[in-house]
Sequence to fold (468 residues):
Amino acid sequence: MNPEFLAQLNATCASIPAAMASAKVTALSGLAVTIAGLGGLASVGDRVSLMRRNGDSIPAEIIGFSGEHARAMAFGNLDGLASGSDVRFPVFIGSRAPQPGGSLRVSDGWVGRIIDPLGRPLDGKGPLPPGPSRPVRTSPPDATLRARLGPRIDLGVRAMNLFTTCREGQRLGLFAGSGVGKSTLMSMLARNTACDVAVISLVGERGREVREFVEDDLGPEGLARSVVVVATSDSPPLMRREAAYAALTVAEYFRDEGKSALLLMDSVTRFCQALREIGLSVGEPPATRGYPPSVFAELPRLLERAGPGIVRPDGSAGQISALFSVLVEGDDQNEPISDAVRGILDGHIVMDRRIAESGRYPAIDVLRSLSRTVPGCNSPDENALTRRARAILATYSEMADMIRLGAYRRGTDPKVDEAITLQPILENVLTQDKHERATLQQSFAALRDALSGQPARDKPVTPAMAVS
Fold:
């Protein structure tokens, strides 16, 4: 008999519960449902079904306990649920018990598909081909057994290739306020980054923008090598939280297959907001800006799952190169989530609203952005180029007000004179259309030309403001 058929048959049999326990809803408070009658059968993370009066079921998860009563939160809306409604809980025996937090059966056939956080297709292309079951919530690989970061990876974005050069398995944060262009930048990375597969998690995305992102920004070429996990802003907090876990689970599958996976999550802030809603519903005390302590405990558990995998017997290892966007509230780069994420990741990219308003995209502030693997992954010549470019941009930034006011006279300081001459050419190098791809070699060649006073090819240079 076919071994694959036997494996699928065993998996199907293991998914059949030995019995179905019944309990009752006793209270509804906000987003939380209180359940009586489960006794010692259920644990945190177990899945139950809440039965509406019309017979439909709502999947839910146990999130806590109050005495002998279980507290659950639903993956859907609670319409039609009442005090006394039935709750059904599947009971398994021994090792057949499902993993708390649920599981996904990821396979190579998921590439090119759009799914929800529970692993259900959203693109109308039929059922997803099943693979081996993987727990959605798991620990990061053992730190002492993980591989080291791989070679540098071509991101296809000139500003990032030059000033935040990234290695395979590295994790970067993209910090930006609303409307600064982070979603467009992430679509550029999904299309252009040199990787085997991209996993894109849209956590709390605006519903009307999903098709625009997939069809216009990502495009057929980007979607063909991507798995997109979507939970829109109107989804319950459990679904928004699960979108992050599901994306990590999919990326871990490809990493464990020895592939180089790119994980793009937009955004960590909305994941934390979902955790805040869940924590407050359970009764956790609010702490910094209303976020309960569990949010800051969960963040490293999520973010540390990305990165290099365990070294395989042949010495190779799969990698998850990750970019997590952070929606900076009020453009405050030191707000709690930004501060916590910045301390965990291997570098940060700051997008500035003033740069976006000036018309330069992507609006990356290279002076406030860094990658912790630089200068180790670049050659000495490349490091010298980026150091000189940073110094020129920093000099111009310091003197910008005096230059605009006409208070600086050319010839007073050679460094300032050089910055006035080269700053518009460097700004031109940092400007990139969203459909343009720039390789690492092309990026450093353009920077070398710019520092020698030569504008990038086919790009007009806006002259600097005249000074007396």
The first helix runs from residue 3 to 14.
